[in-house]
Amino acid sequence: MAMLSNLDLIRRVPLFSLLTTDQAQSIADSVVKRRFKRGELIVEQGTKSNALFILLNGRARVLTADSRGREVILAVLQNGDYVGEMSLIDNEPHSATVRAEVQTDMLVLGRNEFARCLPDSSSLSYAILRGLVARLRSADRQIESLALLDVYGRVARTLLDMAEEEKGVKIIRGKVSRQDMAKVVGASREMVSRVMKDLEDKGVIETLENGSVVIKERLQHD
Q: pLDDT tens, 193-209?
């Protein structure tokens, strides 16, 4: 790695393959190289690192975990893959942890330098980017739920995701379809109906005459 210039390294990364020479040189002047030891965290779920990490060589795992420390692997990163872009686009904490599986070399591009590569924040392109990031975050949560939570936990998380807060009360406007809920949480309609009835019997939720659902107590979903 030491024999190659930053520009040479940038040119090897598929993410930057369409850049002009001037654009690639600008990125090359801004990145720094960093080496991560086996087992070292590259980014941590729930935090912000304010950088884009591009894997040059090695291998890293993308993981998500619940409050009990149970993990599910979302992806394995190889040469040319990158992480951190979602947090840079929407300014939210990382949705997953990335850990080096072996000694791994990265190029690190800071937030300001990355922002210069993005379209203007008022443009349609940027709005589409933010929308895609929101969908990816939702997909990550769904994968985590299916892998780590039982049906009660998945129903609880889905209800919380659907709810809006009004004057300190969480409410889901409109009828909650048991069939649709079953498709979201990966369970049978009958099982979802039993879970919802149990939550109602315990006073955790209340279904109004118009079908809206009020969440009356804190739902446990992990």
A: 888 888 888 888 888 88
pTM value is: 0.63
Long-range CB contacts for residues 140-144, cutoff 8 Å, separation at least 24: 140/64, 140/74, 140/95, 140/96, 141/95, 142/184, 143/64, 143/72, 143/74, 144/64, 144/66, 144/72
Q: How far apart are CA 73 and CA 127, in angstroms?
A: 29
Q: What are phi and psi of 3, to 5 degrees?
A: -80, -15
- Decide: 111 and 90 in contact? Cβ < 8 Å: no
Tell me the residue ranges of DSSP E strands in 20-88.
Answer: 32-36, 41-43, 51-57, 60-65, 71-77, 82-83
DSSP state of 126: H
- Over the chain, what is the mean pLDDT? 85
